[in-house]
């Protein structure tokens, strides 16, 4: 296949898309598989932090503090996601999307596998939590670099009328990763219940990452580079210092885009961050459900999140990115106010219902994100723009959401304050979405940088 993006021969069209359906399917499949493996690893840690890490790595701090410290290690990795985004953005805008995706996948898989082999505090003392934190930091760097490359590979290959649904493909990796992580931990909780799960059962899903990483690496290796990047390379129009240009011209846009994601991410991290798993299984808490039951409920909610993420991308191609977000924000707000009243019934069925309802809004505000972000930034700095916006949104949203929720419950003795915190984050997402213009269908190639540089912020004409 010719890789010249401006020729009709060899499969590429002047609009920068792949014309062959088989090639499109390969790109979609590769982005779904790769991001699923990445997020399986990332969420596996968060679930384990809620279930076992407090006891195994932070026990000397005492039960309450140990759990807070365990959740803090989940949030700590988010502080390093911007570093991963900066590195990946620089490399991705200069050397291509594909090479970055191979690097992030390998780093994440190696870190996760090593966590599965890590001795506990009882064996090596304080070195155990230190090594755990270091490996979690490497996971954070990898996650910070992964998302931008995956969504650009999907969106920049897509026809302009299908960017929403193509961009939803890598987004599906998030609920799929949660589904797999919760499913594997739930399976191990059944196979090795009680003390056996604490002793060795939790390690098996981490060690499985080694196999998944080989599969993901093989699939991604078969995918062509993004046609937009190939065109930039042919024209030698790559920006020398993309991150410098991004913050010099688009700093406000990065912040607003980050806040859009923060409104989704803070709410999503009630499950992906392990908080609900811990809250609902804590034997000393108000719910006290069995671990396997709660993980089963989370797995079902992840399946619902998967469905509505795809629906969100599909709808965004029909009514626009902003309108889809507004529908999603309304649904998310309903889910936020129903969540804890249903969880606090201590009924597995109602817990599942609450999580499934919440996943409707989460999916509708996550599915359109890839297309929205890709259409916000000029081609020459797009990788840096989407990666850094996403990473900052994760820090502002989900990084410490489980720790904040735990602190609010400890301070107030109930979950009402957590509900209002999540509602507030949702409203921040609404306001940020209102500030952006809908740029659905804007040309993404380097021929249209002048049009792409017009500010997508309402009331601002130039970057």
Automatic annotation (TrEMBL):
Keyword field contains Transmembrane helix: yes
UniProt-annotated location(s): Cell membrane
Transmembrane parts of this sequence: 65-87, 99-118, 130-155, 176-194, 200-219, 250-270, 290-311, 323-342, 348-367, 379-405, 417-436
Limits of the Major facilitator superfamily (MFS) profile domain: 27-441
Bilayer topology term: Multi-pass membrane protein
Chief location: membrane
Keyword Membrane in annotation: yes
Record-level GO cellular component terms: plasma membrane
GO function terms (MF aspect): transmembrane transporter activity
Pfam families xrefs: MFS_1 (PF07690)
Keywords for this protein: Cell membrane, Membrane, Transmembrane, Transmembrane helix, Transport
PANTHER family xref list: SHIKIMATE TRANSPORTER
Protein name per UniProt: MFS transporter
């Amino acid at each position: 296949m010719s890789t010249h993006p401006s020729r009709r021969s060899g499969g590429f069209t002047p609009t920068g898309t792949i014309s062959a359906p088989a090639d499109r399917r390969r790109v979609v499949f590769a982005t779904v598989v790769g991001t699923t493996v990445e997020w399986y690893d990332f969420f596996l840690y968060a679930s384990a932090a809620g279930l076992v890490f407090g006891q195994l790595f932070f026990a000397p701090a005492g039960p309450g503090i140990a759990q807070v410290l365990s959740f803090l290690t989940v949030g700590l990795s988010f502080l390093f996601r911007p570093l991963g985004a900066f590195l990946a953005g620089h490399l991705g805008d200069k050397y291509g999307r594909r090479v970055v995706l191979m690097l992030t996948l390998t780093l994440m898989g190696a870190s996760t596998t090593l966590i599965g082999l890590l001795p506990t505090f009882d064996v090596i003392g304080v070195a155990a939590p230190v090594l755990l934190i270091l490996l979690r930091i490497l996971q954070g760097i990898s996650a910070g670099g992964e998302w931008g490359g995956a969504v650009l590979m999907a969106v920049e290959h897509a026809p302009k009328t299908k960017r929403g649904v193509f961009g939803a493909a890598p987004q599906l990796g998030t609920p799929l990763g949660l589904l797999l992580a919760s499913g594997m931990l739930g399976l191990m909780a059944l196979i090795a219940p009680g003390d056996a799960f604490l002793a060795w059962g939790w390690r098996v899903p981490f060690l499985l990452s080694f196999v998944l990483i080989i599969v993901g690496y093989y699939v991604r290796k078969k995918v062509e580079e993004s046609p937009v990047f190939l065109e930039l390379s042919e024209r030698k129009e790559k920006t020398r210092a993309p991150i410098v240009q991004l913050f010099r011209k688009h700093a406000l846009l990065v912040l607003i885009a980050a806040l859009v994601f923060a409104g989704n991410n803070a709410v999503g991290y009630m499950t992906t961050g392990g908080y609900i798993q811990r809250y609902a299984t804590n034997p000393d808490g108000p719910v006290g459900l069995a671990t396997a039951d709660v993980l089963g409920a989370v797995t079902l909610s992840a399946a619902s999140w998967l469905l509505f993420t795809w629906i969100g991308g599909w709808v965004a191609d029909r009514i626009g990115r902003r309108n889809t977000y507004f529908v999603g924000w309304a649904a998310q707000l309903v889910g936020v106010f129903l969540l804890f009243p249903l969880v606090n019934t201590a009924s597995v069925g109602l817990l599942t219902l609450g999580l499934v309802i919440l996943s409707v809004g989460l999916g509708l505000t996550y599915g359109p994100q890839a297309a929205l972000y890709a259409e916000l930034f000029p081609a020459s700095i797009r990788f840096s723009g989407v990666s850094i916006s996403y990473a900052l949104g994760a820090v502002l949203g989900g990084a410490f959401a489980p720790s904040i929720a735990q602190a609010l419950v400890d301070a107030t003795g109930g979950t009402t304050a957590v509900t209002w915190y999540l509602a507030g984050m949702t409203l921040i997402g609404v306001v940020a979405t209102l500030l952006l213009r809908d740029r659905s269908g804007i040309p993404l190639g380097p021929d249209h940088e002048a049009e792409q540089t017009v500010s997508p912020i309402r009331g601002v004409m130039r970057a």
